[in-house]
Structure formats: C-alpha cells, structure tokens
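Students often ask why we bother encoding 3D structure as a string. The short answer is that it lets us treat folding as translation between two languages. Here is a chain of 142 residues written in the first language.
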Amino acid sequence: MKKLIPFDFVLETIDRLSPYTKPMFGCTAVYVDSKIVFILRQRESHPEDNGVWLATSAEHHASLIGEFPSMRSISVLGGGNVTGWQILPEDSSDFEDSVFKACDMVLRQDPRIGKTPKMRTRSSKMLKKKPAKKKRRSPKRG
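And here it is in the second language, the structure alphabet:
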C-alpha cells in the first residue's frame, strides 16, 4: 500500500520543475534537479514539527524570517540548537500562505531555499578490501 504524501499541494504547485520525492526519516523529501528543497512531515510523533521543512542554511534565516514570520527551527533535529533546516509549522495561522510563498521562491530559484546534498562516502572499513584467499588445488590423480 502506497503511503500518502502529506501536503501534496506542494508538488502540484511546483510541478513545472518536475519535482520528485524520496522517503526520508518517515517523511517525504522533495527534490528539484539535484537539490533538496522541502521535507513534508505529518506524523503522530512530535506533532509540533509537522509542516513543511525548508532546506536552507543559517546564513539565510534572518532574511527568511522576514518572509515567513511563523518560521522556526525544528525541535526534533537539535534539542533547541539552530539547524539549517527551518519549518513552516502546520499549526500556524499563515501555514498555507507561507507554503505557497515558499513554493513561489523555489519556482523563482531563490538561492535561500534548496541544498545540494553532500555525497556520502563509504567508511574506511568498507574501502579496505580483504585479500582474496587462494584456492587450494587438489592434487591431480594420475
């Protein structure tokens, strides 16, 4: 059974950019080209963090808070620490207006929203190959 995507109007709104999704942390990550732009979250655990998460960086927080007064850090990510990710909370009075505005920013390719994920590297343990064992040949019988 396919899981429903929360806040699927986000995908409809940025449809011309051909967004695609991937499951992430029990949520839905939204990508445009190689950039992650949003995470859509609607879960029973930590409902205060339900909404649309913005992929951004700390350097953009001050300018984005001017655009999104209800935007805040995500509590489940850092126990009060400021993270690059910010949330437009589902329970805020301006939720839909803010999400549509964020979608418009993505459509305009505003550099404040969207991150190119870092490539994961294999751990050094995985990179070290064990020498192949030599196969013992059985003696020829003559």
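Translate back mentally: The CA atoms of residues 20 and 31 lie 5 Å apart. Keep this in mind for the problem set.
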